Amino acid sequence: MARQTRSSSGDSASTFLPQNLLQYPEKEWCSFDSAHLSALQSSGIFPEGTVFRPYDREIRSDMSSTEWLCFNAFPFTLGLQFPFPDFITDFFRITSLSFSQTMPMLCRVLLVLDRIKNAHIPELSVNGLPLAYRLRSHRSSRFLFYSTSNDPLILRATRNEEEWKSKFFFVKEVQLLVERIIR
């Protein structure tokens, strides 16, 4: 069943400040347009009442705002939902990375490890990740996992996705924090 969500045009592009993290910002304009946003809003991936920022081609994923939080769309195509599972939330809390700084490979690994934790190893924690992976910067302040051995724990996680950098959206940050607290 589709959940009710709403869009807000609250901030203009001028209230978003560039962080200058992108190597080629002119190549990373948002292609996650109003039609994509509409489909996401009706998918039930975010809680009812979540406020999505309308599509604005002028806003890039490395821009910051005090009210809006940027998400890449790719992890949600893998089945990620908000609020994130505790394992994934802990990763972002401990590393202080923003969601838009993660590459598809890192998202795949976190999702697989979360499922392994839930099904087989409840004591698995983010603090154990350095045994198998190290965080590595990969251009433009984006991060991926680098295997600490020649035999990665999770195979085929490095395949890249076409145009993932240009598929992002913004959600009202206050709404997400409240939702996470009451969960």
Textual characterization of the structure:
This protein is α+β, with helices and mostly antiparallel strands and about 180 residues long. It has a two-stranded parallel ribbon with strand order 1-3. Strands 2-4 form a two-stranded antiparallel ribbon. β6 and β7 form a beta hairpin. The N terminus is likely disordered.
The main sheet orders its strands as 1-3
Along the chain, the helix and strand elements come as: EEHEEEHHHEEEH
As an assembly, this protein is single chain
* N-end to C-end Cα span: 20 Å
Helix content: 25-40%
**What is the overall silhouette?**
globular
Structural class: alpha+beta
Helix count?
Answer: 5
**Biggest sheet layout:** 2 strands, parallel
Tally of strands: 8
Q: How would you briefly describe this protein structure?
A:
This protein has 183 residues and is α+β, with helices and mostly antiparallel strands.
